[in-house]
Amino acid sequence: MTDTSIETRQPTTAHRGRLVAILKAVVLFVVLAFVGWALVGQFKRIDWATIEFRAAPVVVATLLLVGVSTVQMISYRSLLGAYAAPPPWRAMAAVAWIPPLGKYVPGKVGALVGAIYMLRRFGVPAAAAVSVVLVLDGLAVIAGLICGAPILAWEPVRRVLPGGWIYAAVLIAGGLTVLHPSVFGRLANFCLRRLGRAPLAKLPDLSHYAVPVLCAFAQWLLAGLALWWMTRSVSDVPARSIGLFISIAALAMTVSYLALFAPGGLGVREAIYLGALAAIPGVGAKGAIVVALMRLAQTLVELGLAGLGWMLLHRSGAGSEPLNDR
Predict the structure, then answer these.
(1) How many CB atoms lie within 10 A of CB 64?
(2) pTM of the model as a whole
(3) N or C: more exposed end of the chain, with fewer CB within 10 A?
(4) 234 near 43, Cβ under 8 Å?
């Protein structure tokens, strides 16, 4: 009787897994098809004779994207200091810059697993590695939602979502509440228990917690500035709109990260960028150019930094220790 129930359960679980995989693939195909159709439509609307492309803003935007990854590295090392001896900076370059390529694997678990694996190679205990990676991801998502919330009060959004400023205020207040060390610690421990992992033995002290929180907000500031500068390559957007661009970038990158069906946020991020940029006076259809440039620059930055991290890893001879749980 028991054997039969087990045999019946296993095919059912496998069948459910296949259905979920197929559903994710279908959703991804629909999103990519929609974004592709929208991009083509926007490109057709562009009056190319009026485009004055400037290369300097593209360079600045690309450097700011490098800054995003650098801030993430600083965040990693700071939080690690609360739980273990942090690896040297060369090692942190490898830890922070190589694993993110795993986000292009469907489900995005590759980035998380890769970061944990790299930390363990440098002697960070498994429990600390898992905790640090999940905590930093959580901080980045919460900060991204807080920074992205003001876009809900933007007039073009309020046309579709009346009372958007109320939702924005609630989201910001809720996010700031969750960021309180005691609240965030309880939430992190709840998530760790749900994942079958040991909860945090202790919460980071204020110095080790404040830096990752500040870095979480700094990365969205840099991402928004990168989007603003990239837009400046094809349109004269004023400096007073920088706050709006920070909200757009934070919301687009956070939502695309949470969209597990989209490897690297592909399609989801572009859809949000495209819709938001099209509503900005002076940008309109030219937003399609910005969307394409942002994805290209982001990909090149990630590949370049991963290559640099790999080179530093091997030149230093680090990371060759056997895995352990010390």
Answers:
(1) 21
(2) 0.85
(3) N
(4) no
* C-alpha torsion angle, residues 185, 190, 193, 198 (rounded to 10): 10
- DSSP letter assigned to residue 324: -
Which of 191, 226, 202 lies closest to 297 in space, CA to CA? 226
Cβ neighbours of residue 104 under 8 Å, at least 6 residues apart?
110, 263, 264, 266
The amino acid occupying position 322 is P
- The dihedrals phi and psi of 217, each to the nearest 5 degrees, come to -75, -35
Can you tell me the distance from the alpha carbon of 270 to that of 259, in angstroms, rounded to the nearest whole number?
13
- Which two structure tokens, joined as six digits, stand for 242? 């920088």
State pLDDT tens for residues 113-163: 788 888 887 777 777 787 788 888 899 999 999 999 999 999 999 888 888
Supply the DSSP string of 199-264, one letter for each residue. PPSSPPPHHHHHHHHHHHHHHHHHHHHHHHHHHHTTS---GGGHHHHHHHHHHHHHHHHH-TTSGG
pLDDT, mean of residues 295-315: 89
Residue among 270, 314, 297, 277 nearest 67 (CA): 297
CA-CA distance, 262 to 265, in Å (whole number)?
5
Per-residue confidence at 64, pLDDT binned at 50, 70, 90?
very high
Question: Rounded CA gap, 165 and 112, in Å?
Answer: 34
